[in-house]
Amino acid sequence: MRHTFVLALLLALPVAHAADAVDPDVARLQAELAQLDADDQLAGMGDVERLRAAQAVEALGLAKSKQRPAALYIAEQRVRAASAAAQADALARQSASLDRERDQILIDASRREADSARREAERLRTQNLARQEEAARLTEEAEMERTARAETFALAEQAQAEAAQARRLAASRTREAELARQEADLASSMVAEAMAADAPLPPSRQLGAATVYTLAGSAFSSGRATLTTEANASLRRLAKDVGSRSVQIVGYSDSQGADAANLALSKRRAEAVAAILKESGASGSVQADGRGEADPIADNATAEGRARNRRVEITVR
After folding, report:
1. 175-231 tens-digit pLDDT
2. Residue 203 DSSP code
3. Residue 33 contacts residue 54 (beta carbons within 8 Å)
4. Are 136 and 188 part of one and the same domain?
């Protein structure tokens, strides 16, 4: 269902800009994503990367001329990452299927061996008068059983080898997807640096002599500590204003999910903000911490309240 949503988002893009001339790069990248969604073997694979790719293609369609080369590069890398992530997920599913097939082969082999042993015991009890002839026949059957068992285990070993190969391919695709994500993140940082001069500062409020800036959870990729290009640019501009003043950064989450995971994610997001501020010129003391779902500012029982609680607060003194 999630990949259907991505396809719907792609199909909606041309409608939103029907009045404009068709951008060949946008059309090409949309076609690549549509082809990826149409592949039944990749259904439900790499949905997060597909969504990010669709958003990057949409941003390309809206980009101004001076921002277009960077937006095109980001969109192409996001589409590559979506394809690689889908292939990696598909190979992982194939690996799991081969593992199950191998296990079933071994189970069937054991069942056949048990059934054969029961039949053999019954036959020996009912044919005591022909022991010599039976012994010869048993010898022949035993040889056939050993041959069948050898063939069965050969099949199991083959399935195991294929599963191992699929896992190696999946790992390779995962590495490719990670490299594509890193390239896209680097390009996003370069674009953010170029946008910093005109970027708006994060929303702020006064707390005595200090100023508290707030980044909403939408400033980050879902479930990650990677900032959007716009939030990155906003922080780079803020760093110029901060100068040598001290900065305290605290990340927060909503109440959904495991406490330990929420705490870890909130800290990683605070550290990501601190890294950009230091990199962009904040020369004073910059401290970062995460408090998970502590200190909510809204009701976690509603979606709106949870969205407000997912935030990073930057206190400048």
Report:
1. 766 555 555 556 566 676 767 678 999 999 999 999 999 999 999 988 899 999 999
2. P
3. yes
4. yes
Round to whole Å and give the CA distance between 312 and 216: 7
Residue 200's SS3 state is coil
> Are 297 and 257 within 8 A, CB to CB?
no
- Picking from 197, 214, 238, the residue at the C-terminal end of a domain is 197
Same domain as 287, residue 181: no
* 142 to 117, 120, 129, 145, 176: CA distances (angstroms): 11, 10, 20, 5, 51
Mind listing the pLDDT tens digit for each residue in 22-56?
Answer: 899 999 999 999 998 888 888 778 889 999 999 99
The pTM score is 0.45
Q: What is the rounded distance in angstroms from the CA atom of residue 76 to the CA atom of residue 28? A: 10
**pLDDT-based confidence at residue 19 (cuts at 50, 70, 90):** very low
Report the Cα–Cα distance between both ends of the chain, in Å, rounded. 47
Q: Residue 252: which pLDDT band, with cuts at 50, 70 and 90?
A: very high
Of 197, 214, 246, the one marking the end of a domain is: 197
Tokens 């979606």 correspond to what residue?
A: 303
Q: Which residues contact 37 (CB under 8 A, 6 or more apart)?
A: 3, 4, 6, 7, 10, 50
CA dist 258 and 155 (Å) reads: 42
Host domain of residue 258: 199-316
- Better-scored residue on pLDDT, 274 or 42: 274
